[in-house]
Amino acid sequence: MLMMAAKLRKWRNMSTRIDLMLRSDATPSEERETANQRRGGGVLYRDILRATRFYTWTDSRGVLWRDVLRENARKEFEAARFETDPEVITRLLIGGSDAVSSALDRLAEKQREMIEKRNRGDQP
C-alpha cells in the first residue's frame, strides 16, 4: 500500500512538472516555485497531522476532535489542490501554518491552566 502511495505521489509531481513545461509562458523559476510550494504543502499537512494527535477528547457526536480536524484539513487541501496562482498558494500556506501554531499555543495554554488547577487542588 505504501509503495502504491509513493508511486502515485511521484506521478502527481511529475504530471505537474509536465503541465508547467507544456505551458508556453512557464519559466524555470515558476517550475521551481511550484515544486517548493508543493513541498511546503506536504510539510504543512504533516505538521497538521502531528499537531492533531494531542486532541484526544470527543465532540458532541462522540467523534474524536483529532479526526474532525484531520478531515477538515484534508478537505481544505483538496479544495486548493488545483490552485495555480503562486501568491494564493503562498497565502494559503502561511495562513495554514499560522493556524497550526495558534492552535498549539492555545492547547498548551489550556493544558497549563489544567495543571495549575490540579496543583492548587481545584480539580481532582
Automatic annotation (TrEMBL):
Transmembrane segments: none annotated. GO terms for cellular component: mitochondrion. It holds the Pfam family Complex1_LYR. InterPro entries: Complex1_LYR_dom, Complex1_LYR_LYRM7. It comes from the Eukaryota. One of its GO terms (biological process) is mitochondrial respiratory chain complex III assembly. Residues 44-97 form the Complex 1 LYR protein domain. This is Complex 1 LYR protein domain-containing protein. It comes from Brassica campestris.
